[in-house]
Amino acid sequence: xxxIYLSPPHLGRHELNYLHKAVEDNWVAPAGPNLxxxxxxxxxxxxxxxxxxxxxGTAAIHLGLRLLGVGPGDEVLxxxxxxxxxxxxxxxxxxxxxxxxxxxxTWNMCPVRLREAITxxxxxxxxxKALLLVHLYGMPAKLDELLAIAxxxxxxxxxxAAEALGSRYQGRPLGxxxxxxxxxxxxxxxxxxxxxxxxxxxxxxxxxxxxxxATQAKDAAPHYQHSEVGYNYRLSNLLAGIGxxxxxxxxxxxxxxxxxxAWYKENLGGLPGLAVAPATELPGSRANRWLTTVLLNxxxxxxxxxxxxxxxxSLRQHLEARNIESRPLWKPLHQQPLFAEVPMxxxxxxxxxxxxxxxxxxxxxxxxxxxxxxAKALREGLAA
Length: 384
Known about the structure:
- With about 375 residues, this protein is α/β, with parallel strands linked by helices.
- The chain folds into 2 domains: about 15-250, 3-Layer(aba) Sandwich (Aspartate Aminotransferase, domain 2), CATH 3.40.640.10; about 250-384, Aspartate Aminotransferase, domain 1 (Alpha-Beta Complex).
- Helices cover about 40% and strands about 15% of the residues.
- The protein has 12 helices and 14 strands.
- The protein has an 8-stranded mixed β-sheet, with helices on both faces.
- Helix 6 (about 145-150) links the parallel strand 4 and strand 5 (about 155-160).
- Helix 1 (about 15-25) runs antiparallel to helix 8 (about 235-245), helix 3 crosses helix 4 and helix 10 (about 310-320) packs across helix 12.
- The longest helix is centred in the last third of the chain and has 19 residues, at about 250-270.
């Protein structure tokens, strides 16, 4: 049987129009009309004033941290339950991440734990420089509470919306809440440029500085002169052309991901020992449902006993044997060898989620037959 992938790229015909035009006009460098057009599309969609297209979301986080003045000796508050690319740029800056546990509703950073972390780090005399928020699997975080805490303590916010393009919080697009925000266009994201990302901000000076750093920090001179460290972070005009075509399909892609989540929820909801989660969106919010995720052995099993002996790994292997890709939830960063010595506040929630969770195939090109095949394999795996 053909392989069912977790979240493969899904291209339409729109992308070819922009690619052909770029090749015909010889705009194949990291400059050109697709780049400026793609950035304008992102601004129009998110309502943010400025966008800088870069070769990855990781690069966008790195530049965002630099814009916020993060450097050696600083600390940046960050969720533990996220991909390592959220935290690695903190280390690039010579700073230290301070990890904060999740809350059980959205799986994003817990406001209670955040306040605890800030209070304790300040008590210890640490230099807190910024708050890095994440919207995990496209689910909006509890922004009202988190942003209020950041404002109370004077912490600028970098919003990591890498997984959340197309999601909304109280009607407003994610990626528009941070002093600096980032999105990703990696091959597995809801919108892809093969690889890529963007930095979003309402500050013109931040956008200009990010572009300057992303293009090797070349000073205004006829020769190559450099007074600051720069990076080769700019997205190519060709890949931006793919992005322009993808932007035309973004709302359709969000609609389809949400349909896939709803199908799984309806058709897997009665299986013993398995819950499609997180099931509930915050009031007024819309998750893009980038990946549908499930938890095994829900917290309230019948008669006080476990409802299934299956584990995420046994289920993953069962699906893999049937040529279906799945993936564990993110392993908390405080459990990674890389960050073994990093401060952590809480941990029980995200550790439990990792121990019980699995990501299911969620690509927008999935057919009804694909979903039925996944559901059949899950039923078999749970019964094994």
